[in-house]
Amino acid sequence: MSQVCTVKIAGPAGTGIKSSGLLLSQILLHHGFNIRDYSEYPSLVRGGHNTYQVSFSLGEIFAPHQKIDLFFALQPHHWQQHQQEFDQKSLVFAPDSTLTLPLGELATQIGGPLYINTLCLGVAAYVLNLDQKTCLKIINHQFGSGSPNLKAFKTGFTYASQNFSGQKLLTCKSKIIRPKSCIYDGNESFAWGFIQGGGSFYAAYPMTPASGVLHFLAAKQSEYNLKVIHPEDEIAAASLAAGAAFVDGRSATGTSGGGFALMTETVSFCGVANLGVVFYLASRPGPATGLPTWTSQGDLLFAVHSGHGEFSKIVLAPGDQAESFSLSGTALNLAAQFNVPVIVLSDKFISESSASLPDLSKAKLKIIKSTLGLRFANSYEHDDQGFSIEDAALVKTQVEKRLSLTSKILKVVPKPTFYFGSKNSKTLVVSWGSVKSSIQEALKIKNDPDVAHVHFRTLWPLDQKIEHLFKSFKKIIVVENNATSQLTTLLKSQFNFKPDKIILKYDGRPFFPEELIEKLWT
Question: Does the predicted TM-score (pTM) go above 0.90?
Fold first, then answer.
Protein backbone atom coordinates (compact mmCIF):
# COMPACT_ATOMS: atom_id res chain seq x y z
CA MET A 1 0.00 0.00 0.00
CA SER A 2 1.38 3.40 -1.02
CA GLN A 3 2.34 5.89 1.66
CA VAL A 4 -0.26 8.50 2.55
CA CYS A 5 0.98 11.91 3.69
CA THR A 6 -1.15 14.75 5.04
CA VAL A 7 -0.35 18.47 5.09
CA LYS A 8 -2.44 20.98 7.03
CA ILE A 9 -2.40 24.79 7.03
CA ALA A 10 -4.09 26.85 9.76
CA GLY A 11 -4.69 30.53 10.32
CA PRO A 12 -7.36 33.25 10.50
CA ALA A 13 -9.98 33.86 7.83
CA GLY A 14 -8.93 36.28 5.13
CA THR A 15 -5.32 35.05 4.88
CA GLY A 16 -5.81 32.80 1.85
CA ILE A 17 -5.69 29.46 3.66
CA LYS A 18 -7.75 27.51 1.13
CA SER A 19 -6.26 29.25 -1.92
CA SER A 20 -2.74 28.29 -0.95
CA GLY A 21 -3.89 24.80 0.00
CA LEU A 22 -5.45 24.24 -3.41
CA LEU A 23 -2.26 25.52 -5.02
CA LEU A 24 -0.32 22.91 -3.05
CA SER A 25 -2.80 20.29 -4.26
CA GLN A 26 -2.16 21.34 -7.86
CA ILE A 27 1.57 20.98 -7.28
CA LEU A 28 1.05 17.50 -5.83
CA LEU A 29 -1.12 16.56 -8.81
CA HIS A 30 1.73 17.45 -11.17
CA HIS A 31 4.01 15.18 -9.17
CA GLY A 32 1.75 12.21 -9.83
CA PHE A 33 -0.12 12.11 -6.51
CA ASN A 34 -3.81 11.43 -5.98
CA ILE A 35 -5.38 13.82 -3.49
CA ARG A 36 -8.31 14.17 -1.11
CA ASP A 37 -8.73 17.40 0.83
CA TYR A 38 -10.89 18.92 3.55
CA SER A 39 -11.30 22.46 4.88
CA GLU A 40 -12.81 23.88 8.06
CA TYR A 41 -13.84 27.46 8.64
CA PRO A 42 -16.17 29.36 10.98
CA SER A 43 -18.84 31.68 9.62
CA LEU A 44 -16.51 34.69 9.68
CA VAL A 45 -15.09 36.95 6.98
CA ARG A 46 -12.01 37.81 9.05
CA GLY A 47 -10.34 36.20 12.04
CA GLY A 48 -11.20 32.92 13.69
CA HIS A 49 -9.49 29.62 13.01
CA ASN A 50 -9.47 28.24 9.45
CA THR A 51 -7.76 25.11 8.18
CA TYR A 52 -7.10 23.36 4.90
CA GLN A 53 -5.64 19.87 4.78
CA VAL A 54 -4.74 17.58 1.92
CA SER A 55 -3.92 13.88 2.08
CA PHE A 56 -2.07 12.48 -0.91
CA SER A 57 -0.65 9.23 -2.18
CA LEU A 58 0.81 7.71 -5.32
CA GLY A 59 -1.76 4.94 -4.84
CA GLU A 60 -5.51 5.10 -4.49
CA ILE A 61 -6.83 7.28 -1.69
CA PHE A 62 -10.49 7.67 -0.74
CA ALA A 63 -10.56 10.19 2.13
CA PRO A 64 -8.40 12.71 4.00
CA HIS A 65 -6.61 11.40 7.09
CA GLN A 66 -6.81 12.81 10.59
CA LYS A 67 -3.15 12.27 11.46
CA ILE A 68 -1.06 15.23 10.26
CA ASP A 69 2.48 14.77 8.95
CA LEU A 70 3.27 18.38 8.08
CA PHE A 71 1.54 21.32 9.75
CA PHE A 72 1.85 25.07 9.16
CA ALA A 73 0.38 27.76 11.44
CA LEU A 74 0.44 31.20 9.81
CA GLN A 75 0.14 32.95 13.17
CA PRO A 76 0.94 32.04 16.78
CA HIS A 77 -1.49 30.00 18.89
CA HIS A 78 -3.09 28.11 15.98
CA TRP A 79 -1.19 24.82 16.14
CA GLN A 80 -2.16 24.11 19.76
CA GLN A 81 -5.73 23.27 18.70
CA HIS A 82 -4.48 20.29 16.71
CA GLN A 83 -2.16 18.50 19.08
CA GLN A 84 -4.36 15.38 19.11
CA GLU A 85 -3.72 15.10 15.35
CA PHE A 86 0.07 14.96 15.74
CA ASP A 87 2.38 12.10 16.59
CA GLN A 88 6.13 12.00 17.34
CA LYS A 89 6.96 12.17 13.63
CA SER A 90 4.73 15.18 12.83
CA LEU A 91 6.54 18.33 11.71
CA VAL A 92 4.88 21.44 13.13
CA PHE A 93 6.04 24.75 11.67
CA ALA A 94 4.79 27.89 13.41
CA PRO A 95 6.11 31.17 14.77
CA ASP A 96 5.76 29.72 18.29
CA SER A 97 6.51 26.00 17.85
CA THR A 98 9.68 23.89 18.18
CA LEU A 99 10.32 24.23 14.44
CA THR A 100 10.20 28.01 14.50
CA LEU A 101 9.37 29.56 11.16
CA PRO A 102 9.83 33.38 11.17
CA LEU A 103 7.10 33.97 8.59
CA GLY A 104 6.55 37.64 9.46
CA GLU A 105 10.24 38.47 9.16
CA LEU A 106 10.65 36.60 5.86
CA ALA A 107 7.46 38.09 4.40
CA THR A 108 8.59 41.61 5.24
CA GLN A 109 11.67 41.07 3.06
CA ILE A 110 9.39 40.26 0.12
CA GLY A 111 6.65 42.83 0.52
CA GLY A 112 4.40 42.05 3.48
CA PRO A 113 2.22 39.40 5.16
CA LEU A 114 0.35 38.76 1.91
CA TYR A 115 3.10 36.30 0.92
CA ILE A 116 3.19 34.19 4.08
CA ASN A 117 1.15 31.41 2.43
CA THR A 118 3.55 31.08 -0.48
CA LEU A 119 6.50 31.07 1.89
CA CYS A 120 4.94 28.04 3.55
CA LEU A 121 4.53 26.37 0.15
CA GLY A 122 8.27 26.78 -0.39
CA VAL A 123 9.03 25.13 2.93
CA ALA A 124 6.52 22.35 2.21
CA ALA A 125 8.04 21.70 -1.23
CA TYR A 126 11.50 21.26 0.29
CA VAL A 127 10.34 19.04 3.16
CA LEU A 128 8.25 16.91 0.77
CA ASN A 129 11.19 16.65 -1.62
CA LEU A 130 9.21 18.12 -4.53
CA ASP A 131 10.75 19.40 -7.74
CA GLN A 132 11.43 23.12 -7.37
CA LYS A 133 11.23 23.92 -11.10
CA THR A 134 7.84 22.24 -11.41
CA CYS A 135 6.54 24.13 -8.38
CA LEU A 136 7.74 27.47 -9.74
CA LYS A 137 6.15 26.74 -13.11
CA ILE A 138 2.76 26.19 -11.46
CA ILE A 139 3.12 29.29 -9.26
CA ASN A 140 4.09 31.32 -12.31
CA HIS A 141 0.98 30.07 -14.12
CA GLN A 142 -1.16 31.02 -11.12
CA PHE A 143 0.22 34.49 -10.38
CA GLY A 144 2.19 35.60 -13.45
CA SER A 145 5.91 35.86 -14.13
CA GLY A 146 6.42 39.16 -12.28
CA SER A 147 4.64 38.18 -9.09
CA PRO A 148 6.48 38.43 -5.76
CA ASN A 149 4.97 35.01 -4.99
CA LEU A 150 7.78 33.45 -7.03
CA LYS A 151 10.34 35.10 -4.77
CA ALA A 152 8.30 34.10 -1.70
CA PHE A 153 8.35 30.45 -2.75
CA LYS A 154 12.10 30.52 -3.41
CA THR A 155 12.70 32.22 -0.06
CA GLY A 156 10.73 29.55 1.80
CA PHE A 157 12.45 26.75 -0.10
CA THR A 158 15.91 28.19 0.57
CA TYR A 159 15.20 28.85 4.26
CA ALA A 160 14.04 25.25 4.67
CA SER A 161 17.12 23.88 2.92
CA GLN A 162 19.36 25.88 5.28
CA ASN A 163 17.48 25.15 8.51
CA PHE A 164 15.47 21.92 8.11
CA SER A 165 17.68 19.68 5.98
CA GLY A 166 17.12 16.76 8.33
CA GLN A 167 13.32 17.01 8.29
CA LYS A 168 12.40 15.61 4.88
CA LEU A 169 9.24 13.48 4.90
CA LEU A 170 9.57 11.82 1.49
CA THR A 171 12.83 10.06 0.73
CA CYS A 172 12.49 10.02 -3.07
CA LYS A 173 10.92 12.36 -5.56
CA SER A 174 7.73 11.25 -7.23
CA LYS A 175 7.45 11.25 -11.01
CA ILE A 176 6.86 14.62 -12.65
CA ILE A 177 3.89 14.26 -14.99
CA ARG A 178 1.41 16.21 -17.02
CA PRO A 179 -1.61 15.18 -14.99
CA LYS A 180 -4.57 13.49 -16.63
CA SER A 181 -6.56 14.32 -13.50
CA CYS A 182 -8.00 17.62 -12.29
CA ILE A 183 -9.12 18.79 -8.86
CA TYR A 184 -12.85 19.19 -8.26
CA ASP A 185 -14.93 19.75 -5.17
CA GLY A 186 -18.38 18.18 -4.91
CA ASN A 187 -20.18 21.34 -6.02
CA GLU A 188 -18.05 21.61 -9.15
CA SER A 189 -18.57 17.91 -9.82
CA PHE A 190 -22.33 18.27 -9.53
CA ALA A 191 -22.22 21.31 -11.82
CA TRP A 192 -20.22 19.44 -14.45
CA GLY A 193 -22.70 16.57 -14.22
CA PHE A 194 -25.49 19.08 -14.80
CA ILE A 195 -23.70 20.42 -17.90
CA GLN A 196 -22.69 17.04 -19.34
CA GLY A 197 -26.14 15.64 -18.48
CA GLY A 198 -27.83 18.21 -20.72
CA GLY A 199 -28.98 20.62 -18.00
CA SER A 200 -30.35 23.87 -19.38
CA PHE A 201 -31.76 25.89 -16.45
CA TYR A 202 -30.47 26.42 -12.91
CA ALA A 203 -31.90 28.81 -10.32
CA ALA A 204 -30.62 29.21 -6.77
CA TYR A 205 -30.33 31.62 -3.89
CA PRO A 206 -26.85 31.38 -2.29
CA MET A 207 -26.68 29.21 0.81
CA THR A 208 -23.60 27.48 2.19
CA PRO A 209 -22.53 24.84 1.28
CA ALA A 210 -24.47 24.67 -2.02
CA SER A 211 -23.50 28.12 -3.34
CA GLY A 212 -20.55 26.81 -5.33
CA VAL A 213 -22.87 25.25 -7.92
CA LEU A 214 -24.57 28.59 -8.58
CA HIS A 215 -21.26 30.43 -8.93
CA PHE A 216 -19.74 27.75 -11.18
CA LEU A 217 -22.71 27.44 -13.54
CA ALA A 218 -23.15 31.22 -13.74
CA ALA A 219 -19.58 31.47 -15.04
CA LYS A 220 -20.32 28.80 -17.68
CA GLN A 221 -23.57 30.27 -19.06
CA SER A 222 -22.26 31.56 -22.36
CA GLU A 223 -19.92 28.66 -23.05
CA TYR A 224 -22.57 25.98 -22.55
CA ASN A 225 -25.76 27.87 -23.45
CA LEU A 226 -27.20 27.72 -19.93
CA LYS A 227 -29.72 29.94 -18.21
CA VAL A 228 -28.65 30.59 -14.61
CA ILE A 229 -30.71 32.84 -12.33
CA HIS A 230 -30.08 34.20 -8.83
CA PRO A 231 -33.57 35.23 -7.65
CA GLU A 232 -34.71 36.90 -4.45
CA ASP A 233 -35.10 33.74 -2.32
CA GLU A 234 -35.33 29.94 -2.33
CA ILE A 235 -39.09 29.94 -2.93
CA ALA A 236 -38.58 31.87 -6.15
CA ALA A 237 -35.64 29.65 -7.16
CA ALA A 238 -37.69 26.45 -6.83
CA SER A 239 -40.68 28.02 -8.58
CA LEU A 240 -38.52 29.16 -11.49
CA ALA A 241 -37.04 25.67 -11.84
CA ALA A 242 -40.56 24.23 -11.88
CA GLY A 243 -41.57 26.73 -14.56
CA ALA A 244 -38.60 25.72 -16.70
CA ALA A 245 -39.57 22.05 -16.34
CA PHE A 246 -43.12 22.95 -17.42
CA VAL A 247 -41.77 23.83 -20.87
CA ASP A 248 -39.53 20.74 -21.00
CA GLY A 249 -36.35 22.33 -19.67
CA ARG A 250 -33.84 20.12 -17.87
CA SER A 251 -33.90 22.20 -14.72
CA ALA A 252 -32.48 22.16 -11.22
CA THR A 253 -32.24 24.27 -8.10
CA GLY A 254 -29.84 24.04 -5.16
CA THR A 255 -29.72 24.94 -1.48
CA SER A 256 -29.05 23.64 2.02
CA GLY A 257 -31.53 22.49 4.66
CA GLY A 258 -32.96 25.88 5.62
CA GLY A 259 -33.51 26.82 2.00
CA PHE A 260 -34.98 23.42 1.19
CA ALA A 261 -37.53 23.96 3.96
CA LEU A 262 -38.83 26.86 1.85
CA MET A 263 -38.77 24.75 -1.31
CA THR A 264 -40.92 21.89 -0.05
CA GLU A 265 -44.16 23.48 -1.31
CA THR A 266 -42.65 23.37 -4.79
CA VAL A 267 -41.66 19.72 -4.25
CA SER A 268 -45.39 18.99 -3.73
CA PHE A 269 -46.32 21.11 -6.72
CA CYS A 270 -43.91 19.12 -8.90
CA GLY A 271 -45.46 15.93 -7.53
CA VAL A 272 -49.01 16.86 -8.54
CA ALA A 273 -48.14 18.70 -11.76
CA ASN A 274 -45.82 15.94 -13.01
CA LEU A 275 -42.76 18.16 -13.26
CA GLY A 276 -39.27 16.69 -13.27
CA VAL A 277 -37.12 19.11 -11.27
CA VAL A 278 -33.78 18.24 -9.65
CA PHE A 279 -33.29 19.61 -6.12
CA TYR A 280 -29.64 19.69 -5.02
CA LEU A 281 -29.67 19.59 -1.21
CA ALA A 282 -26.19 20.06 0.29
CA SER A 283 -26.72 19.49 4.01
CA ARG A 284 -25.21 21.25 6.99
CA PRO A 285 -26.10 20.84 10.69
CA GLY A 286 -29.45 22.20 11.85
CA PRO A 287 -31.91 23.05 13.28
CA ALA A 288 -32.42 26.56 11.89
CA THR A 289 -29.09 28.27 11.13
CA GLY A 290 -27.29 25.48 12.98
CA LEU A 291 -23.62 25.32 12.00
CA PRO A 292 -23.66 27.04 8.60
CA THR A 293 -20.12 26.08 7.55
CA TRP A 294 -19.92 22.53 8.92
CA THR A 295 -21.18 19.12 7.85
CA SER A 296 -23.97 16.71 8.74
CA GLN A 297 -26.16 13.94 7.32
CA GLY A 298 -29.16 15.20 9.24
CA ASP A 299 -31.55 15.80 6.31
CA LEU A 300 -32.19 12.26 5.06
CA LEU A 301 -35.67 11.80 6.49
CA PHE A 302 -36.51 15.42 5.66
CA ALA A 303 -35.67 14.78 2.01
CA VAL A 304 -37.53 11.47 1.82
CA HIS A 305 -40.68 12.93 3.40
CA SER A 306 -40.48 16.40 1.86
CA GLY A 307 -43.66 17.85 0.42
CA HIS A 308 -47.17 17.39 1.74
CA GLY A 309 -49.45 14.73 0.34
CA GLU A 310 -48.55 11.41 -1.27
CA PHE A 311 -46.70 11.18 -4.56
CA SER A 312 -43.66 9.52 -6.09
CA LYS A 313 -40.27 11.16 -5.67
CA ILE A 314 -36.66 10.05 -5.90
CA VAL A 315 -33.84 10.69 -3.41
CA LEU A 316 -30.26 10.01 -4.52
CA ALA A 317 -27.14 10.52 -2.41
CA PRO A 318 -23.59 10.71 -3.79
CA GLY A 319 -20.85 9.23 -1.64
CA ASP A 320 -17.99 11.27 -3.07
CA GLN A 321 -17.09 13.82 -5.73
CA ALA A 322 -17.14 11.27 -8.56
CA GLU A 323 -20.68 10.25 -7.67
CA SER A 324 -21.68 13.91 -7.38
CA PHE A 325 -20.88 14.12 -11.10
CA SER A 326 -22.55 10.89 -12.20
CA LEU A 327 -25.66 11.22 -10.03
CA SER A 328 -26.20 14.77 -11.24
CA GLY A 329 -26.66 13.43 -14.76
CA THR A 330 -28.67 10.47 -13.46
CA ALA A 331 -31.02 12.83 -11.61
CA LEU A 332 -31.71 14.84 -14.77
CA ASN A 333 -32.48 11.64 -16.68
CA LEU A 334 -34.80 10.31 -13.97
CA ALA A 335 -36.61 13.65 -13.78
CA ALA A 336 -37.10 13.55 -17.55
CA GLN A 337 -38.21 9.90 -17.61
CA PHE A 338 -40.73 10.02 -14.78
CA ASN A 339 -41.58 13.72 -14.40
CA VAL A 340 -41.20 13.63 -10.63
CA PRO A 341 -39.04 15.68 -8.22
CA VAL A 342 -35.56 14.20 -7.81
CA ILE A 343 -33.54 15.20 -4.75
CA VAL A 344 -29.74 14.84 -4.81
CA LEU A 345 -28.75 14.76 -1.14
CA SER A 346 -25.13 15.78 -0.50
CA ASP A 347 -23.41 17.55 2.42
CA LYS A 348 -20.65 20.02 3.19
CA PHE A 349 -17.98 17.31 3.45
CA ILE A 350 -18.51 16.35 -0.20
CA SER A 351 -19.60 19.67 -1.65
CA GLU A 352 -16.67 21.75 -0.36
CA SER A 353 -13.95 19.08 -0.30
CA SER A 354 -11.91 18.16 -3.36
CA ALA A 355 -10.60 15.06 -5.07
CA SER A 356 -8.41 14.31 -8.07
CA LEU A 357 -10.69 13.07 -10.87
CA PRO A 358 -10.51 12.65 -14.65
CA ASP A 359 -11.18 15.83 -16.63
CA LEU A 360 -14.94 16.28 -16.21
CA SER A 361 -15.10 18.90 -18.95
CA LYS A 362 -14.39 16.06 -21.39
CA ALA A 363 -16.50 13.39 -19.68
CA LYS A 364 -19.60 12.00 -21.36
CA LEU A 365 -22.94 11.17 -19.77
CA LYS A 366 -25.94 9.45 -21.28
CA ILE A 367 -28.84 11.84 -21.84
CA ILE A 368 -32.42 10.54 -21.69
CA LYS A 369 -34.93 13.13 -22.84
CA SER A 370 -38.53 13.55 -21.77
CA THR A 371 -41.22 12.19 -24.09
CA LEU A 372 -44.01 14.39 -22.75
CA GLY A 373 -43.24 17.81 -24.16
CA LEU A 374 -45.70 20.64 -23.46
CA ARG A 375 -48.35 19.65 -20.92
CA PHE A 376 -51.29 21.20 -19.08
CA ALA A 377 -51.53 20.87 -15.31
CA ASN A 378 -51.91 22.89 -12.14
CA SER A 379 -51.50 22.56 -8.38
CA TYR A 380 -55.11 21.44 -7.98
CA GLU A 381 -55.94 17.75 -8.36
CA HIS A 382 -56.54 17.31 -12.09
CA ASP A 383 -57.27 14.80 -14.81
CA ASP A 384 -54.95 13.69 -17.60
CA GLN A 385 -55.80 16.81 -19.62
CA GLY A 386 -54.84 19.08 -16.71
CA PHE A 387 -58.36 20.16 -15.75
CA SER A 388 -59.23 20.40 -12.04
CA ILE A 389 -61.29 17.55 -10.59
CA GLU A 390 -62.97 16.60 -7.32
CA ASP A 391 -64.88 13.50 -8.39
CA ALA A 392 -64.01 10.67 -5.96
CA ALA A 393 -63.36 8.01 -8.57
CA LEU A 394 -61.19 10.28 -10.71
CA VAL A 395 -59.24 11.50 -7.69
CA LYS A 396 -58.56 7.92 -6.61
CA THR A 397 -57.35 7.08 -10.10
CA GLN A 398 -54.96 10.02 -10.21
CA VAL A 399 -53.49 9.28 -6.74
CA GLU A 400 -52.88 5.67 -7.72
CA LYS A 401 -51.41 6.71 -11.06
CA ARG A 402 -48.84 8.96 -9.36
CA LEU A 403 -47.89 6.31 -6.80
CA SER A 404 -47.68 3.57 -9.45
CA LEU A 405 -44.57 5.26 -10.85
CA THR A 406 -42.58 3.86 -7.91
CA SER A 407 -42.44 0.32 -9.31
CA LYS A 408 -41.13 1.65 -12.62
CA ILE A 409 -38.62 3.93 -10.90
CA LEU A 410 -37.19 1.02 -8.87
CA LYS A 411 -36.20 -0.78 -12.07
CA VAL A 412 -33.79 1.97 -13.15
CA VAL A 413 -32.48 3.83 -10.08
CA PRO A 414 -28.88 3.07 -8.94
CA LYS A 415 -28.60 -0.13 -6.92
CA PRO A 416 -26.61 -0.53 -3.66
CA THR A 417 -22.90 -0.98 -4.35
CA PHE A 418 -20.52 -3.39 -2.59
CA TYR A 419 -16.93 -2.39 -1.78
CA PHE A 420 -14.18 -4.52 -0.25
CA GLY A 421 -14.92 -7.86 1.34
CA SER A 422 -17.63 -9.97 -0.32
CA LYS A 423 -21.08 -11.39 0.34
CA ASN A 424 -19.26 -14.17 2.21
CA SER A 425 -17.78 -11.73 4.73
CA LYS A 426 -18.93 -11.96 8.35
CA THR A 427 -19.55 -8.23 8.91
CA LEU A 428 -21.37 -5.76 6.69
CA VAL A 429 -20.88 -2.01 7.12
CA VAL A 430 -23.92 -0.11 5.84
CA SER A 431 -23.78 3.55 4.83
CA TRP A 432 -25.06 6.27 2.57
CA GLY A 433 -23.60 9.57 1.40
CA SER A 434 -20.27 11.04 2.39
CA VAL A 435 -19.25 8.48 5.02
CA LYS A 436 -18.57 6.13 2.08
CA SER A 437 -15.14 7.63 1.43
CA SER A 438 -13.91 7.38 5.03
CA ILE A 439 -15.20 3.80 5.36
CA GLN A 440 -13.43 2.83 2.14
CA GLU A 441 -10.16 4.35 3.33
CA ALA A 442 -10.46 2.55 6.68
CA LEU A 443 -11.16 -0.79 4.96
CA LYS A 444 -8.28 -0.23 2.56
CA ILE A 445 -5.90 0.31 5.47
CA LYS A 446 -7.13 -2.69 7.48
CA ASN A 447 -7.52 -5.01 4.46
CA ASP A 448 -9.81 -7.34 6.41
CA PRO A 449 -11.69 -9.80 4.12
CA ASP A 450 -14.24 -10.46 6.87
CA VAL A 451 -15.60 -6.91 6.57
CA ALA A 452 -17.64 -5.81 3.55
CA HIS A 453 -19.22 -2.44 2.83
CA VAL A 454 -22.51 -1.67 1.09
CA HIS A 455 -23.20 1.90 0.01
CA PHE A 456 -26.71 3.16 -0.78
CA ARG A 457 -26.90 5.69 -3.62
CA THR A 458 -30.69 5.52 -3.85
CA LEU A 459 -32.41 6.32 -0.55
CA TRP A 460 -35.94 6.52 -1.95
CA PRO A 461 -37.73 4.55 -3.15
CA LEU A 462 -36.27 1.44 -1.49
CA ASP A 463 -36.54 -1.92 -3.22
CA GLN A 464 -38.04 -4.69 -1.07
CA LYS A 465 -35.35 -7.03 -2.38
CA ILE A 466 -32.80 -5.12 -0.30
CA GLU A 467 -33.96 -6.96 2.82
CA HIS A 468 -32.38 -10.19 1.53
CA LEU A 469 -29.03 -8.43 1.20
CA PHE A 470 -28.58 -8.31 4.98
CA LYS A 471 -29.41 -11.93 5.77
CA SER A 472 -26.09 -13.51 4.75
CA PHE A 473 -24.05 -11.50 7.28
CA LYS A 474 -23.54 -12.33 10.93
CA LYS A 475 -23.07 -8.71 12.00
CA ILE A 476 -24.52 -5.47 10.61
CA ILE A 477 -22.96 -2.07 11.43
CA VAL A 478 -24.50 1.24 10.36
CA VAL A 479 -22.29 4.34 10.11
CA GLU A 480 -23.87 7.80 9.82
CA ASN A 481 -22.90 11.43 10.29
CA ASN A 482 -26.01 12.30 12.32
CA ALA A 483 -27.33 11.87 15.87
CA THR A 484 -30.34 9.57 15.36
CA SER A 485 -29.22 7.08 12.69
CA GLN A 486 -31.77 8.19 10.12
CA LEU A 487 -30.81 5.43 7.68
CA THR A 488 -31.64 2.86 10.36
CA THR A 489 -35.03 4.53 10.88
CA LEU A 490 -35.68 4.50 7.14
CA LEU A 491 -34.70 0.87 6.68
CA LYS A 492 -36.75 -0.20 9.70
CA SER A 493 -39.77 1.53 8.17
CA GLN A 494 -39.52 -0.73 5.13
CA PHE A 495 -37.87 -3.97 6.34
CA ASN A 496 -37.19 -6.10 9.38
CA PHE A 497 -33.84 -4.39 9.87
CA LYS A 498 -31.94 -4.84 13.16
CA PRO A 499 -28.33 -3.61 13.08
CA ASP A 500 -25.94 -5.02 15.67
CA LYS A 501 -24.03 -1.75 16.06
CA ILE A 502 -24.57 1.89 15.12
CA ILE A 503 -21.67 4.34 14.84
CA LEU A 504 -22.65 8.01 14.82
CA LYS A 505 -20.90 11.37 14.73
CA TYR A 506 -22.78 14.66 15.01
CA ASP A 507 -20.40 17.45 16.01
CA GLY A 508 -20.26 19.13 12.60
CA ARG A 509 -17.12 17.22 11.61
CA PRO A 510 -16.86 14.26 9.22
CA PHE A 511 -15.56 10.83 10.09
CA PHE A 512 -11.86 10.28 9.51
CA PRO A 513 -10.63 6.78 8.61
CA GLU A 514 -8.55 6.56 11.81
CA GLU A 515 -11.72 7.04 13.88
CA LEU A 516 -13.56 4.34 11.96
CA ILE A 517 -10.72 1.86 12.29
CA GLU A 518 -10.95 2.28 16.05
CA LYS A 519 -14.75 1.97 16.14
CA LEU A 520 -15.29 -0.77 13.55
CA TRP A 521 -12.74 -3.21 14.96
CA THR A 522 -13.50 -2.85 18.68
Answer: yes
